[in-house]
Specification:
The protein is built from 11 helices and 9 strands. It is globular. The mean pLDDT is about 95. It folds into 2 domains: about 200 residues, 2-enoyl-CoA Hydratase, Chain A, domain 1; about 55 residues. The chain has about 260 residues and is α/β, with parallel strands linked by helices.
């Protein structure tokens, strides 16, 4: 792959945006490579997938030079270009493995959307988040679907209408970021979280993620009903049986 690097180590699949000279900006080729890598890692031995950026920034958003090159392209070409990144967001939501964003530096526009699309966002204390598309006459179109779910209507519209830049801590307080870590701890602590996720029973993790996002489409009653089914199904797995036996054995040893 040209614009990203992909690897697996100790159950952690890692995707690195590798265009530091472009602040890891997203173009059609990068979006296609991201989708391919996500599909590949979801079918691999990896139990958790991390996405990070090479260099100082996570991702500065869309590659404006690439957009400039296609300004006069037909509408169908623009639809297909947008669909490539939309496909990445949809793929991440449908995967049965957790996807974790490791954000250093800027996560702007589509880069903020890429982080928001992840299941967990771990931020370096110097990370910055913004949705400044309207300032250049663009629309933060696809990312709003995820942004509204993360922070609610009023906060989401404020962010996309003003394009204001959020510190990592502000983003955490709004719900865009899961956790923020000091610079000296970021790498060690985030790697520890990835290790913890990689050691979680995979069937239980998959069932949790699938049900978690399925709830978006269900009423309260239907959500409880789906939870009853998932609960009963989980009880039949070897992971659950072994986990219960380990717990009860420790309880007996403590008595």
């Amino acid at each position: 792959m040209k614009n990203i690097r992909v690897g697996i180590e100790n159950g952690v699949g890692r995707i690195t945006l590798a265009r530091p000279e472009k602040k890891n900006a997203l173009d059609r080729a990068t979006a296609d490579e991201l989708a391919e890598a996500l599909f590949s890692l979801n079918d691999s031995v990896a139990r958790v997938i991390a996405i990070e950026g090479e260099g100082a920034d996570f991702c500065a958003g869309a590659d404006l030079a690439a957009l400039d090159d296609m300004l006069d392209a037909p509408r169908q070409a623009h639809l297909e270009d947008a669909q490539a990144l939309g496909h990445v967001f949809h793929t991440m939501r449908r995967m049965d493995k957790p996807v974790v964003a490791l954000v250093r530096g800027r996560a702007f526009a589509g880069g903020a959307g890429l982080a928001t699309a992840c299941d967990i966002v771990l931020a370096h204390e110097d990370a910055r988040f913004a949705y400044p598309e309207v300032s250049i006459g663009f629309v933060p179109a696809m990312v709003m679907t995820m942004l509204r779910r993360s922070v609610g209507e009023k906060q989401a519209f404020d962010l996309v209408a003003t394009g204001r830049v959020l510190s990592a801590e502000e983003a955490r307080q709004l719900g865009l970021v899961s956790r923020v870590f000091p610079a000296l701890e970021f790498e060690t602590v985030s790697e520890g979280i990835l290790k913890q996720l990689a050691q979680t029973p995979p069937a239980a993790m998959a069932a949790t993620k699938v049900l978690f996002y399925k709830l978006d489409t269900l009423s309260f009653l239907d959500g409880i009903t789906a939870g009853i089914v998932a609960n009963a199904d989980a009880r039949s797995t070897s992971e659950f049986r072994e986990g219960v036996k380990r717990f009860t054995s420790r309880k007996k040893d403590d008595q």
